[in-house]
Amino acid sequence: MNPSTHQPPQIARANGIDLCYEIFGDPAAEPMILIMGLGAQMIHWDDDFCRQLAARGFRVIRFDNRDIGKSSRLSGGKPLSPMELLKLRFLKIPVQAPYRLHDMAQDTVGLMDALGIKSAHVVGVSMGGMIAQEIAISFPQRLRSLTSIMSSTGNPKLPPPTREATAILMAPPPKSREEYLERFAKTWKVLRAGHFPEDEALDRARGERAFERGLNPAGVGRQLRAILASGSRK
Q1: pLDDT per position as a tens digit, 48-64
Q2: Virtual CA dihedral for 63, 72, 38, 194, nearest 10 degrees?
Q3: Domain residue ranges in the chain
Q4: Which of 41, 60, 64, 110 could link 71 by a cystine bridge, Cβ 3.0 to 4.6 Å?
Q5: How far is residue 130 from each of residues 29, 104, 169, measured CA to CA in Å?
Q6: CATH code assigned to 10-173+215-229
Q7: CB 107 within 8 A of CB 127
Q8: pTM greater than the 0.85 cutoff
Q9: 57 three-state secondary structure
Q10: Closest CA to 77 of 206, 230, 224, 211
């Protein structure tokens, strides 16, 4: 099979929920699981990037985490308040959450089970890196390698996010399509921490694609709670 083969999105039952996933590459190639970050759909693993990985000899699987994109939407959890963040930082009072990163790690392992994958190269970005770390801790036999990109161990001694990044995370959800697209571009500009014209030129099209697949602001809030409730992996 051509390594650039791209299978259409499918749904797998994993860890009691439905996960939407796509596969690039030869079914016989070494499996590589891509885990996306907070509030980001699987399509943020760029199509061409996935094809390039497939051309390097990998069977590339990307998927929507729970509470995002076309995967199951859960319930519960109020919007995170600044007071909760202050209590967590200064009084070490944990944030309450409907689920934690360990549950999301179990989602990923459940997807691997559904696809008949015993072990894989696991690549996670931001929150996805944290989920990948949880897999390494709890399910080490399922990893061939771990790549953790622009992520964190959750160690409280590490520097906190910048004020600008925190403000983006805590901002109320956009109320219109145009407001969402503006926020999308601003968010990624902050996260990139620099000027990257080629990516910035693609932001609107990427934002439009994410908007069309469907948004879930409450789900993003639950994902953020999962991060803050999961403590340190150090």
Answers
A1: 999 999 999 999 999 99
A2: 50
A3: 10-173+215-229
A4: 64
A5: 26, 10, 17
A6: 3.40.50.1820
A7: no
A8: yes
A9: coil
A10: 224
